[in-house]
Amino acid sequence: MDLVVLQNWLDNISFAVLLSTMLVYWVGAAFPGIPYLSALGTAGMAVANLSIAALLGARWIEAGYFPLSNLYESLFFLTWGITAIHLVAENMSRSRLVGVATSPVAMAISAFAALTLPATMQSAEPLVPALKSNWLMMHVSVMMLSYSTLMVGALLAIAFLVVTRGQKIELTGSSFGTNGNRHSNYRLQRPQNPEPQIGTTAADSGLAFSEPSFNSTNNGSATTAVLELATVQTSSHHQSQTAEILSPQRLNLASTLDNISYRIIGLGFPLLTIGIIAGGVWANEAWGSYWSWDPKETWALITWLVFAAYLHARITRGWQGRRPAILAATGFVVVWICYLGVNLLGKGLHSYGWFF
Q1: pTM metric for this prediction
Q2: b/e 133-169 (16+ beta carbons within 10 angstroms → b)
Q3: Please, which residues have CB within 8 angstroms of residue 218's CB and are 6 or more apart in sequence?
Q4: Could you say which residues of the chain have pLDDT below 70?
Q5: pLDDT per position as a tens digit, 46-75
Q6: How far apart are CA 39 and CA 195, in angstroms?
Q7: Any alpha helices (H) in the chain, and if so which ranges?
């Protein structure tokens, strides 16, 4: 079979598989009692990952260089990275919610690459002189892997915010507590309430209360949850207070998502650092300057600073739960601006020049 025809088949197959996998994960989340859906979703992501790997391999053979020279190739490499990191994260968390978060993004990227990009951008072209370097593989592949890893970590942080329903959950203790013999404590916080009125009960007055601690098993480890929650509802005439308690299962899932998100971002940040350094060395070799404040370079630095702040807040300041999750969600947007927004809209050495 002609390699070009094979590539067309493979990119359409990967899109179809990812679309089906996304539906499987969503149905499994809506109807958790259906058996085998979780395994089917994992299998779908694995098949998509292998299909994209075969696509990139066929592209490599056809063009004679590592397939990261244009937007079509980099989008599929990004999708391959997301599916690969997804499999790692899902194996660590044992939760189908990972696929609920990652599969739509992987599917959308493959759809954009296969169905939206012009045919001229999908075809393999000879490398321009500046790209005829071993740094093409060393720099760009590491950067794309860092983008994939940071995106998956940020998506898990967004899933954490969804699972906790926007409640301010502060986790105390080690961020790695769910996978060892350590403990993580959960504290759900609400704004301070006014003093209770005479004749009201503690629940009516909105006073914080504590439920008895419970233990739940996650990969053989114990997780202790302490709930202190008072939900304040204000009306035009009076204030009434109602209490809401997240289930132990939901709290345990939130703990896992927070933990795995931290670990995945902790893997992606060194990759981003190495990729930026490699890019500086390549830039000096190609253009005689390590750093030229090109729009891509500037946004890569912004991305690095956002995730450096995330890790600093978690490691040094002890942040866990909602606040770092919001910071990671912001990083998800910044990564997309750095990767796609600058490439398509900006004018610089890294621009693909589709719009301008």
Answers
A1: 0.78
A2: eebbebbbbbbbbbbbbbbbbbbbbbbbbebbeebeb
A3: 178, 179, 252, 255, 256
A4: 1, 130, 166-246, 343-356
A5: 999 999 999 999 998 888 888 888 889 999
A6: 52
A7: 3-30, 37-63, 71-93, 97-111, 119-122, 135, 141-163, 202-205, 248-287, 295-315, 322-336, 342-345
